[in-house]
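User: I'll paste a sequence; please echo it back and then give the predicted structure.

Assistant: Echoing your sequence first, then the prediction.
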Amino acid sequence: MPHFLLKKGNLHFVKLSTSNKVLRAIAFNGSSEFLSEVSGGVLLFIINITMMKYYGTQRVAAYAIVVYLLYFTTMTCYNVSDSLKSIVSVNFGAKKQKRMIHFLKISLVTVITFGLVLVVLTQINSVSFVSLFLNVNAELSVSTLANKFLLEISPVLFLLG
């Protein structure tokens, strides 16, 4: 920080000066992502309220454990695709289609394998996944419900990639 605050180099903080037109364009460009994030939050809120009303806290807690695993799987597959963007972009620009297709195949095999491994692991030992989120003294019914939900939803883990 001293480098930036003392302005000893060529790179330093400056006051941002931009026109309202540019700010409106930025806001318009980001509005779709903003609405997407807000709608996801509202949807999860509605799901939680509805589940609390009809199923109670135990089932919501069990559902939350499954959602964490789904989120982990989604983010892992998203990271594979996110890292693929640069590689494909460079090879597309260099007109190296064979390499681009090769990297696409590698990423596809990676997410499919990851999904299959998770499905097999959850089917073999869902208790281990649930125990990551519940301590030993957790209520048995929550653990049992989470195991049941996880076994039922595990095939979806394959499709998330």
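The chain has five helices and no strands. The chain has a mean pLDDT of 86.
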